Amino acid sequence: MTKRANNRKNEELRDIKITLGVVESADGSCYLEWGKNIILATVHGPRQIFPKHLANSEKAVIDYKYRMAPFSVTDRKSPVPGKRDKEISLVSGYALESAIQTEKFPNTVIDIDAVVLSADAGTRSAALTAASLACADAGLPMKGLVSVVAAGRANGDLVWDLDKADEDTEDAVDTAIGVLFPQKEIVLLQMDGFINQKDWKKVISMGIDAAEEVYKLQKKALLEKYPVNG
Ligand code: CDP
Questions:
Q1: Is residue 228 predicted with pLDDT exceeding 80?
Q2: What is the pTM of this model?
Q3: Are 123 and 116 in contact (CB under 8 A)?
Protein backbone atom coordinates (compact mmCIF):
# COMPACT_ATOMS: atom_id res chain seq x y z
CA MET A 1 0.00 0.00 0.00
CA THR A 2 1.45 3.36 -1.05
CA LYS A 3 1.09 6.08 1.50
CA ARG A 4 -1.16 8.99 0.48
CA ALA A 5 0.67 12.30 0.10
CA ASN A 6 -1.62 13.73 2.76
CA ASN A 7 -0.94 10.91 5.25
CA ARG A 8 -4.62 10.00 5.42
CA LYS A 9 -5.79 6.42 5.61
CA ASN A 10 -7.49 5.17 2.45
CA GLU A 11 -10.89 5.32 4.14
CA GLU A 12 -10.56 8.65 5.88
CA LEU A 13 -12.21 12.00 5.20
CA ARG A 14 -10.40 15.30 5.33
CA ASP A 15 -11.29 17.49 8.32
CA ILE A 16 -14.73 19.05 7.85
CA LYS A 17 -15.88 22.15 9.70
CA ILE A 18 -19.44 23.43 9.30
CA THR A 19 -20.84 26.81 10.37
CA LEU A 20 -24.51 27.59 9.72
CA GLY A 21 -26.30 30.92 9.33
CA VAL A 22 -23.28 33.10 8.54
CA VAL A 23 -24.91 35.35 5.90
CA GLU A 24 -27.55 37.60 7.42
CA SER A 25 -29.07 38.74 4.12
CA ALA A 26 -29.83 35.15 3.07
CA ASP A 27 -32.69 32.95 4.25
CA GLY A 28 -30.20 30.20 5.00
CA SER A 29 -26.46 29.77 4.69
CA CYS A 30 -23.53 27.49 5.38
CA TYR A 31 -19.79 28.11 5.56
CA LEU A 32 -17.87 24.90 5.06
CA GLU A 33 -14.19 24.09 5.36
CA TRP A 34 -13.36 20.67 3.95
CA GLY A 35 -9.63 20.12 4.06
CA LYS A 36 -8.26 23.03 2.04
CA ASN A 37 -11.60 23.60 0.28
CA ILE A 38 -13.62 26.59 1.49
CA ILE A 39 -17.25 26.98 0.41
CA LEU A 40 -19.96 29.49 1.15
CA ALA A 41 -23.52 28.44 0.26
CA THR A 42 -26.65 30.58 0.53
CA VAL A 43 -30.38 30.14 -0.05
CA HIS A 44 -32.86 32.84 -1.06
CA GLY A 45 -36.52 32.02 -1.42
CA PRO A 46 -38.91 30.56 -2.27
CA ARG A 47 -39.91 33.74 -4.10
CA GLN A 48 -42.04 34.59 -7.13
CA ILE A 49 -40.38 33.59 -10.36
CA PHE A 50 -39.73 36.01 -13.23
CA PRO A 51 -40.17 35.80 -16.16
CA LYS A 52 -43.38 33.97 -15.37
CA HIS A 53 -43.08 31.46 -18.22
CA LEU A 54 -40.28 29.80 -16.22
CA ALA A 55 -42.76 28.93 -13.46
CA ASN A 56 -43.86 25.38 -12.72
CA SER A 57 -47.43 25.22 -11.43
CA GLU A 58 -46.68 21.99 -9.55
CA LYS A 59 -43.43 22.77 -7.78
CA ALA A 60 -40.71 25.28 -7.02
CA VAL A 61 -37.91 25.64 -9.53
CA ILE A 62 -34.50 24.99 -7.98
CA ASP A 63 -31.91 27.38 -9.37
CA TYR A 64 -28.57 26.04 -8.09
CA LYS A 65 -25.41 27.82 -9.08
CA TYR A 66 -21.95 26.37 -8.40
CA ARG A 67 -19.24 28.95 -8.98
CA MET A 68 -15.51 29.12 -8.37
CA ALA A 69 -14.21 32.47 -7.21
CA PRO A 70 -11.40 33.73 -9.50
CA PHE A 71 -8.98 33.56 -6.55
CA SER A 72 -9.95 30.01 -5.51
CA VAL A 73 -7.35 28.32 -7.73
CA THR A 74 -3.68 28.95 -8.50
CA ASP A 75 -4.24 29.91 -12.14
CA ARG A 76 -6.79 32.67 -11.54
CA LYS A 77 -10.13 31.46 -12.94
CA SER A 78 -12.24 33.65 -15.19
CA PRO A 79 -15.29 34.93 -13.27
CA VAL A 80 -17.43 34.02 -16.30
CA PRO A 81 -19.09 30.65 -15.64
CA GLY A 82 -17.78 28.01 -18.05
CA LYS A 83 -19.13 24.67 -19.26
CA ARG A 84 -17.82 22.91 -16.14
CA ASP A 85 -19.62 25.28 -13.73
CA LYS A 86 -22.85 24.95 -15.70
CA GLU A 87 -22.72 21.16 -15.86
CA ILE A 88 -21.97 20.86 -12.13
CA SER A 89 -24.78 23.33 -11.35
CA LEU A 90 -27.28 21.39 -13.44
CA VAL A 91 -26.66 17.92 -12.03
CA SER A 92 -26.26 19.20 -8.46
CA GLY A 93 -29.58 21.06 -8.82
CA TYR A 94 -31.31 17.76 -9.70
CA ALA A 95 -29.79 16.21 -6.59
CA LEU A 96 -31.06 19.05 -4.41
CA GLU A 97 -34.50 18.78 -5.96
CA SER A 98 -34.75 15.25 -4.61
CA ALA A 99 -34.12 16.58 -1.08
CA ILE A 100 -36.51 19.56 -0.99
CA GLN A 101 -40.30 19.35 -0.82
CA THR A 102 -40.63 21.56 -3.88
CA GLU A 103 -44.28 20.61 -4.36
CA LYS A 104 -45.12 22.86 -1.39
CA PHE A 105 -44.08 25.99 -3.32
CA PRO A 106 -45.60 25.96 -6.83
CA ASN A 107 -44.82 28.88 -9.17
CA THR A 108 -41.77 29.95 -7.18
CA VAL A 109 -38.00 29.76 -7.48
CA ILE A 110 -35.49 28.85 -4.79
CA ASP A 111 -32.07 30.36 -5.50
CA ILE A 112 -29.21 28.33 -4.10
CA ASP A 113 -25.68 29.63 -4.61
CA ALA A 114 -22.50 27.82 -3.68
CA VAL A 115 -19.25 29.72 -4.13
CA VAL A 116 -15.90 27.99 -3.91
CA LEU A 117 -13.54 30.39 -2.13
CA SER A 118 -10.61 27.99 -2.09
CA ALA A 119 -10.27 24.76 -4.08
CA ASP A 120 -8.31 21.58 -3.48
CA ALA A 121 -10.42 18.99 -5.36
CA GLY A 122 -13.81 17.67 -4.33
CA THR A 123 -15.35 21.12 -4.57
CA ARG A 124 -18.57 19.99 -6.30
CA SER A 125 -19.08 17.55 -3.41
CA ALA A 126 -18.30 20.11 -0.72
CA ALA A 127 -20.46 22.74 -2.44
CA LEU A 128 -23.50 20.47 -2.66
CA THR A 129 -23.05 19.26 0.91
CA ALA A 130 -22.95 22.91 2.05
CA ALA A 131 -25.94 23.84 -0.14
CA SER A 132 -28.00 21.05 1.36
CA LEU A 133 -27.21 22.39 4.83
CA ALA A 134 -28.04 25.95 3.78
CA CYS A 135 -31.47 24.70 2.64
CA ALA A 136 -32.07 23.13 6.05
CA ASP A 137 -30.80 26.32 7.71
CA ALA A 138 -33.35 28.28 5.63
CA GLY A 139 -36.09 26.13 7.16
CA LEU A 140 -37.13 24.64 3.82
CA PRO A 141 -39.20 21.50 4.27
CA MET A 142 -36.79 18.70 3.40
CA LYS A 143 -37.22 15.04 2.52
CA GLY A 144 -33.64 14.46 3.65
CA LEU A 145 -30.11 15.80 3.36
CA VAL A 146 -27.78 15.38 0.40
CA SER A 147 -24.34 14.23 1.52
CA VAL A 148 -21.66 14.18 -1.14
CA VAL A 149 -18.09 12.96 -1.31
CA ALA A 150 -15.73 11.58 -3.92
CA ALA A 151 -14.36 8.06 -3.85
CA GLY A 152 -11.99 6.51 -6.35
CA ARG A 153 -8.41 5.52 -6.97
CA ALA A 154 -5.19 7.29 -6.03
CA ASN A 155 -1.72 5.78 -6.38
CA GLY A 156 -3.37 2.47 -7.27
CA ASP A 157 -5.37 2.29 -4.02
CA LEU A 158 -9.13 2.69 -3.69
CA VAL A 159 -9.72 5.69 -1.43
CA TRP A 160 -12.27 8.07 0.05
CA ASP A 161 -12.33 11.81 -0.54
CA LEU A 162 -9.61 12.57 -3.11
CA ASP A 163 -7.78 15.86 -2.66
CA LYS A 164 -5.72 17.53 -5.39
CA ALA A 165 -2.62 15.48 -4.56
CA ASP A 166 -4.71 12.28 -4.89
CA GLU A 167 -6.37 13.47 -8.12
CA ASP A 168 -3.00 14.30 -9.66
CA THR A 169 -1.62 10.76 -9.21
CA GLU A 170 -1.21 8.61 -12.31
CA ASP A 171 -4.29 6.61 -13.31
CA ALA A 172 -6.48 8.39 -10.73
CA VAL A 173 -10.23 7.78 -10.70
CA ASP A 174 -12.49 10.38 -9.16
CA THR A 175 -16.18 9.66 -8.61
CA ALA A 176 -18.43 12.18 -6.90
CA ILE A 177 -21.26 10.33 -5.13
CA GLY A 178 -24.23 12.18 -3.67
CA VAL A 179 -26.55 10.27 -1.37
CA LEU A 180 -29.92 11.36 -0.02
CA PHE A 181 -30.13 10.40 3.66
CA PRO A 182 -31.80 8.90 5.58
CA GLN A 183 -33.30 7.19 2.49
CA LYS A 184 -29.81 6.21 1.29
CA GLU A 185 -30.61 6.91 -2.36
CA ILE A 186 -27.89 7.88 -4.83
CA VAL A 187 -28.87 11.26 -6.29
CA LEU A 188 -25.59 12.28 -7.96
CA LEU A 189 -22.90 10.26 -9.69
CA GLN A 190 -20.10 11.74 -11.81
CA MET A 191 -16.92 9.96 -12.75
CA ASP A 192 -13.51 10.92 -14.16
CA GLY A 193 -11.10 8.16 -15.22
CA PHE A 194 -11.19 4.48 -16.20
CA ILE A 195 -11.86 1.56 -13.87
CA ASN A 196 -12.85 -2.11 -14.09
CA GLN A 197 -16.29 -3.27 -13.04
CA LYS A 198 -15.16 -4.96 -9.82
CA ASP A 199 -13.34 -1.90 -8.53
CA TRP A 200 -16.16 0.36 -9.72
CA LYS A 201 -18.66 -1.52 -7.54
CA LYS A 202 -16.25 -1.20 -4.62
CA VAL A 203 -15.85 2.54 -5.24
CA ILE A 204 -19.63 3.05 -5.20
CA SER A 205 -19.94 1.16 -1.95
CA MET A 206 -17.01 3.12 -0.43
CA GLY A 207 -18.59 6.37 -1.60
CA ILE A 208 -21.88 5.52 0.12
CA ASP A 209 -20.03 4.72 3.38
CA ALA A 210 -18.03 7.94 3.13
CA ALA A 211 -21.18 9.95 2.40
CA GLU A 212 -22.76 8.49 5.53
CA GLU A 213 -19.85 9.91 7.56
CA VAL A 214 -20.50 13.30 5.95
CA TYR A 215 -24.20 12.94 6.81
CA LYS A 216 -23.33 12.38 10.48
CA LEU A 217 -21.34 15.64 10.52
CA GLN A 218 -24.18 17.50 8.80
CA LYS A 219 -26.71 16.21 11.33
CA LYS A 220 -24.40 17.13 14.22
CA ALA A 221 -24.03 20.72 12.92
CA LEU A 222 -27.80 21.08 12.49
CA LEU A 223 -28.57 19.66 15.92
CA GLU A 224 -26.01 22.00 17.51
CA LYS A 225 -27.72 25.03 15.98
CA TYR A 226 -31.27 23.72 16.22
CA PRO A 227 -31.46 21.43 19.27
CA VAL A 228 -34.48 19.16 19.02
CA ASN A 229 -35.62 19.97 22.56
CA GLY A 230 -34.11 23.46 22.63
O1 CDP B 1 -13.36 20.18 -7.44
P2 CDP B 1 -13.87 18.93 -8.11
O3 CDP B 1 -13.01 17.73 -7.77
O4 CDP B 1 -15.33 18.71 -7.85
O5 CDP B 1 -13.79 19.17 -9.69
P6 CDP B 1 -12.63 18.85 -10.74
O7 CDP B 1 -13.09 19.40 -12.05
O8 CDP B 1 -12.25 17.42 -10.67
O9 CDP B 1 -11.44 19.76 -10.26
C10 CDP B 1 -10.50 19.29 -9.33
C11 CDP B 1 -9.69 20.45 -8.83
O12 CDP B 1 -8.94 21.01 -9.90
C13 CDP B 1 -10.46 21.63 -8.26
O14 CDP B 1 -10.98 21.42 -6.96
C15 CDP B 1 -9.40 22.68 -8.29
O16 CDP B 1 -8.50 22.50 -7.21
C17 CDP B 1 -8.71 22.36 -9.62
N18 CDP B 1 -9.25 23.22 -10.71
C19 CDP B 1 -8.48 24.32 -11.09
O20 CDP B 1 -7.40 24.54 -10.55
N21 CDP B 1 -8.97 25.18 -12.05
C22 CDP B 1 -10.18 24.96 -12.63
N23 CDP B 1 -10.63 25.80 -13.56
C24 CDP B 1 -10.94 23.84 -12.26
C25 CDP B 1 -10.44 22.99 -11.29
A1: yes
A2: 0.97
A3: yes
